[in-house]
Amino acid sequence: MADPNQSEQKPADGDLSDAELLELFAGHGVYRDNAAQYRGRLDGQLLINRCADCARYHQPPRPMCPNCWSFDVVPTPVSGRGTIHLLMYLHAGPPADGVDYHNGGHPVVVVELEEQEHLRVTGTVHEFGPNEPSIGDAVELDFLDRGGAPIVAFRPSHPTELNHPTKPDQPSLQEHRSQD
């Protein structure tokens, strides 16, 4: 019998059992090869399988690297920064919190991540305000809560300043080379 003076503690997100993970992400298509990616979402990370032998990322997750056929693949965190490669609007679908299929449709994007050419992830977008997202827009990873589960989302990327910006009175590298 449990001690009534002890409070029941829920396991940390990474300690969820497989059954709890399946229940939390019901309807998302969680299976053996992508469970680590869903566990990463609970920790605020976007994990993509990366081959330990050839260093190539591959998405969707598979147990074998499609580049070199190695089985030494590891779910690896990625930055989540990239550009919108494909944009579509859904005008019908199952009801979900925060999804409006009317008034222009619900945006879904495929983002090409900066880690590797042709490495793409699907999600939704938000925080674009009056500027609708467009193909080629720079975005960064975010997560939205849908029914208690974090889903992949992207928001506009805010450009960061370089550590050593070029001063206006200094010639650029190309100008400097042409002077030599």
Q: Can you characterise this structure?
A:
This protein is an alpha+beta fold. The chain folds into 2 domains: 11-78, no CATH class; 79-160, Beta Barrel (OB fold (Dihydrolipoamide Acetyltransferase, E2P)). It is built from 3 helices and 8 strands; from the N terminus they run ααββββββββα. It has helices at residues 18-24, 35-42, 173-179, and strands at 46-51, 57-58, 73-78, 82-90, 106-113, 120-125, 138-146, 149-156. The longest helix has 8 residues, at 35-42. It is globular.
In short:
The chain has 180 residues and is of the alpha+beta class. It has helices spanning 18-24, 35-42, 173-179, and strands at 46-51, 57-58, 73-78, 82-90, 106-113, 120-125, 138-146, 149-156. The model is unreliable at 1-13 and 161-180 (pLDDT under 50).
**How many domains?**
2
The computed structural class is: alpha+beta
Spans where pLDDT lies below 50 across 5 or more residues? 1-13, 161-180
The count of DSSP E runs of length 2 or more, i.e. the number of strands, is 8
What is the gyration radius calculated from CA atoms?
Answer: 21 Å
Strand order of the largest sheet: 4-5-6-8-7
Q: What's the helical proportion of residues?
A: 10-25%
Tell me what the CATH architecture of the largest domain is: Beta Barrel
CATH top level class name of the largest domain: Mainly Beta
Per the CATH scheme, the topology name of the largest domain is OB fold (Dihydrolipoamide Acetyltransferase, E2P)
The helix count comes to 3
* Residue share in β-strands: 25-35%
